[in-house]
Amino acid sequence: MTTNTPHINPNGVEIAPTVLLPGDPLRAKFIAETYLDNVKQFNEVRNMFGFTGEFNGTPVSVMGSGMGMPSIGIYSSELIKFYDVKKVIRVGSCGAMQKHVNLYDVIIGVSASHDSNFMSQYNLPGTWAPTASWKLTAAAIAEAEKQGANYHVGNILSSDIFYNEDDTVNDRWASMGVLGVEMESAALYAIAARHGVDALGIFTASDNLITGERTTAAERQTAFTSMMEIALPLAAI
Ligand code: HPA
């Protein structure tokens, strides 16, 4: 195994074949402490904490991705190219873009539209469609069903812009049936596809950009639990 890369220095701690990627490194710490056994920290470079542990006996790592496609692009590329990671699963929040998506609902992002220049590096003669792994998507749907979660499966938007000058964009993406907006998954899906590994984004709706509803921090915790209970078993498939 590679000893270190520019942004990850595991100091001899193994990184599991499955890595969960919340945006916030302190969220990664919380996930490791709450859900995993035998936890060891494998990264602290730039405070982008990463941990490896076990979930029901299966090795799982969890690491912050940072916000945006450039940041998740760096971490997921190093994990896949240099640490042999085979499944990258983003767990995060998103802004819902449909009236029928309620706050706290889970969204499984089977495909990710985007407004980014990230894909230009692949120099394709058309527009490539960032798509999640079907194996992970099908397994996530099965878990969501098993748990009776309120969930939606569909297209999400990965945007480079959180504070958009153009306040009409949300309605236009929504008119195409986009379920919610976040800032990372299209890049994650592209990098995974390029390297033949599995990627998926699972989200909880933290706010609704169409109705203006917002969650409180305490309420978000419950929704977070549902998303994690769908994501964690995917390590074992
Ligand atoms: N935009 C981008 N990412 C998000 C949002 C949003 O409105 N809400 C939660 N994550």
Concise account of the structure shown:
The protein is α/β, with parallel strands linked by helices. It contains 6 helices and 9 strands, in the order E-H-E-E-E-H-E-E-H-E-H-E-H-E-H.
Which descriptors would you attach to this protein?
single chain; 237 residues; alpha/beta; Rossmann fold; 27% strand; binds hypoxanthine; DeoD-type; glycosyltransferase; Nucleoside_phosphorylase_sf
What is the CATH-assigned architecture?
A: 3-Layer(aba) Sandwich
Q: Write down the Rg.
A: 17 Å
The computed structural class is alpha/beta
Order of the strands making up the biggest sheet: 5-8-7-6-9
Topology, number of strands = 9
Approximate helicity band: 25-40%
Q: What is the CATH level 1 assignment?
A: Alpha Beta
What ligands are attached or bound here? hypoxanthine
Oligomeric state of this protein = single chain
What's the main sheet like? 5 strands, mixed, barrel
**What is the string of SSEs from the N terminus onward?**
EHEEEHEEHEHEHEH
Mean pLDDT: 96
Any idea of the CATH topology?
A: Rossmann fold
CATH superfamily descriptor: Nucleoside phosphorylase domain
Overall geometry:
globular
- The end-to-end span amounts to 23 Å
Q: Count of DSSP helices?
A: 6
- The residue ranges in which pLDDT falls below 50 over 5 or more consecutive positions are none
Number of domains: 1
